Amino acid sequence: MTVEYYQRLLRSVFEGRKVILATGTIVGMARRLESLQKLGVEECFLVGDSMGTGDLPEDLEVPWKVIVEEKAPDMLTGIRNYNQALENPSSELVDALHRFDPDGEAIVLNAHVSDVMELAGRPRLGARQPRWAALEDKVVIDAFWDRAGVKRASSVVVEAGDFEESRRVSELLDEGSGTAWAGDTRQGFNGGAVYVRRVANKEDARRAHEFFKGSCHQVRIMPFLEGIPCSIHGVVFPQKVIAFRPVEMVVFRRRDSPKLLYSGFSTWWDPKEEDREYMRQVAKEVGALLREEVGYRGAFTIDGVMTPTGFIPTELNARTGGAFRTLVHGEPEMPLEYLEVCIREGLPLDYRPEELEEFVLNTADAHRTGGGWTVVKTVFEKTEKYQLHLTQSGSFRLEEHGEEEGVGTLSVGPSSVGGFLNFHPAKSQMTAGNSIAPMVARVWALADREFQTEFGELIPAVVGDPHGC
Length: 469
Description:
Blueprint: H1 3-14, E1 18-24, H2 26-30, H3 33-38, E2 43-48, E3 64-66, H4 75-87, H5 91-100, E4 107-110, E5 118-119, E6 122-123, H6 130-133, H7 141-148, E7 156-159, H8 163-173, E8 179-183, E9 196-199, H9 202-213, E10 218-223, E11 228-236, E12 241-254, E13 260-266, H10 273-294, E14 298-307, E15 310-317, H11 336-345, H12 353-366, E16 370-376, E17 384-390, E18 396-399, E19 408-414, E20 419-425, H13 437-451, E21 458-459
Parallel strand pairs: 1-2, 1-4, 2-3
Antiparallel strand pairs: 5-6, 7-10, 8-9, 8-10, 11-12, 11-14, 12-13, 12-21, 13-16, 14-15, 16-20, 17-18, 17-19, 19-20
Helix pairs in contact: 8-9
């Protein structure tokens, strides 16, 4: 199977059409334009949450508009503000879109974390059904694991306002590393570990309770799992479910807070072969049940932890995850994300699932990638790019215009929260099989020193051997 085949396949959908792209930052969308143009898209209009970190191409000649003006206190609120601005577009945006697309026939593409169904009267391509999105609620998913026959950790759901019961259950389920508390979706979509707390003592429990009682109806409590946070993608077709490779999620615990920090992902990490195949089999079984119970189609992710005794799932995301596009990092012209949108829409194309599965697996294994990125409250007015170098003491230092490759690059720039950090290691520093989290932790420590980002001490996942167990 070739990239050209899937490009030809999607040209039947996109060729000669106008596209309204609303997937995040203007800079990020500008990078997607070339792939859309290769699919025959006639014109694009970009609707962003912010300018973002990075430089706009000098030859960018498409109309664009930033629709969120205020800074958000955190990543999740920023996503919600953006979605709200798309669901309730200003008259200025509506007028601009009408000038761009007076017939109202443009294709609308949204971010994977958005549940916007239409934009100014134009339906979104690949919108997910509410019953699919409902499965992301962490207080209901354990029953789904049981119906799928998937091994999971013990858990109990408690009322968010009942502190004494939460403490009692937490002490009961603690297996020595504390417990993980996860809130429901009362306030809508949540992700990025924003609604998860690690509770190791009574003070952690009190602080977690104060957060959840004001934002959730219920909280799921389970043992805190030591190991590598990771995820895997599956894709549901009418007659077939395929699965790709595991991806490390960079998630840190904090020394003095129950909050966790999600900040990146990596395909450099490898679990043991038997664990990898187990995760892929779980994804196929889960995908089959999704299709049977809710008529699901398209991609989904299973998040969990690779523990010393194997993979344990913690949540299901009925959508693509942030690492989806990076699975074809080595084949940048492969239109995987737009292919998935068409699958989710139910368009009757010749997708050739088995061949797609083999292509993505081979590409992801051959071309490793990953890094660390996160929003911060520190405000950066413009994008700056630095090279990272090792000092004699083993820490990192910044060099703005270095000639040597160094150990990686760090970009800082604007975001809907205030600032954005984007770290990518040099390939010469990486070895297939290893976790990237310890290196990202050292870079964020450097950011604290240089940019006053106030991460504090970050603790990477426990890594016992090159396979993360």
